[in-house]
Design goal:
single chain, alpha+beta, three-stranded antiparallel sheet, 10% strand, flat
């Protein structure tokens, strides 16, 4: 028998099948779920309200229903587009374990090592070059070949766990910030900074240039703030404007803060600041490093994609049937396969 509780069930199913959606899409999904239930039993007369208060109440209601499962309907601003995105995420403290459904233990270890290098990157650049990313496998498992590592990096980007810029550098994706935020805060406490305006994690944006000032701002928050104020919200130091050379200039955060040669000093880890003397080490020949197929088959996109295609087509068919346009669903930029110049790792 149909009841108002079915709206919640349909909404959760829709959110889990889409993984991460914009607020506009999530609201549309909620509306269509209400329409679907009312079409079966119009006596229920469930009303959809398109306003902030009712939406926030609905999000809290869904989160309360997910609490017993240690799940949450979480949301965060996409640092690339500025859009608000939502997703059902794990809250029990072992977020990286979510990768176990797609990757092996060694591959997860490689991913965690990449997180180390991204979060501990110098100058708050929060990114690593493709060369440093590939060399990281030496410290994870030497049985992983260069070809295998390249396929893994491509997979991490394609599945939304990493973002890759046009210059070939890897950084945190919106999905990683949304789903692994508790892990990042627990393991990189000193490297995680929150936006002074919206209080969300910042890996791209601006920082006050005054020593010891903790102000960090997303690009969108900075632009909004500067429309009405011209001084740091924390230390109150005047900031320089485009038409006035006086005041403090802002520091950039993210790839824009990356400086050529900053990786030469060695790799950073949570246990020590740097490991020297590795700059001259190179990958061995692929034929020598390639592991036997029987012992550790290298996953490919084709192998990983089996079963996913049908699920995506099914979700697309459901969207079409429900009238949901989800073309802005992908908040994370699509993967690119640029070949950056070879750099020394620090």
């Amino acid at each position: 028998m149909v009841s108002s509780a079915d709206v919640m069930r349909l909404f959760m199913q829709g959110m889990m099948s889409r993984r991460m959606v914009t607020e506009k899409t999530a609201r549309k999904l909620w509306e269509k779920c209400i329409e679907a239930v009312n079409s079966v039993d119009d006596s229920l007369n469930i009303v959809y309200h398109d306003d902030r208060k009712h939406w926030d109440d609905w999000v809290n209601k869904v989160t309360d229903a997910l609490n017993p499962l240690d799940l949450e309907l979480a949301h965060v601003h996409d640092e690339f587009s500025g859009q608000h995105v939502y997703g059902i995420v794990n809250r029990n403290g072992d977020e990286v374990a979510q990768l176990a459904t797609e990757y092996t233990a060694v591959e997860i270890k490689f991913f965690k090592a990449l997180l180390d290098q991204i979060m501990l990157a110098a100058n708050e650049s929060y990114c690593v070059s493709s060369l440093l990313a590939l060399r990281e496998v030496k410290f994870v498992d030497k049985s992983i070949s260069k070809t295998h590592a390249e396929r893994l990096l491509t997979s991490f980007v394609a599945r939304g766990w990493l973002a890759q810029s046009r210059k070939g550098r890897y950084s945190l994706s919106t999905r990683t910030i949304l789903e692994l935020q508790n892990y990042l805060k627990a393991h990189f406490e000193d490297a995680v900074h929150e936006c002074t305006i919206c209080m969300e994690m910042v890996t791209r944006g601006f920082a006050c240039n005054v020593p010891n000032c903790q102000t960090r701002l997303h690009s969108r928050c900075y632009s909004t703030y500067r429309k009405s104020r011209n001084a740091c919200p924390t230390c109150k130091t005047p900031w320089a404007s485009d038409n006035d050379g006086t005041g403090e200039r802002m520091k950039k955060i993210g790839e824009a803060a990356f400086k050529e040669g900053q990786e030469k000093r060695g790799r950073r880890t949570r246990d020590s600041d740097a490991h020297e003397g590795d700059d001259d080490e190179e990958f061995e020949d692929d034929a020598e490093m390639e592991e036997p197929e029987a012992s550790q088959p290298a996953p490919t996109q084709t192998q990983r994609g089996k079963g996913k295609g049908k699920a995506k087509k099914k979700a697309a068919a459901e969207d079409e049937e429900m009238g949901i346009e989800d073309n802005e669903n992908e908040a994370t930029p699509p993967p690119t396969r640029t070949q950056p110049s070879r750099r020394s790792r620090r």
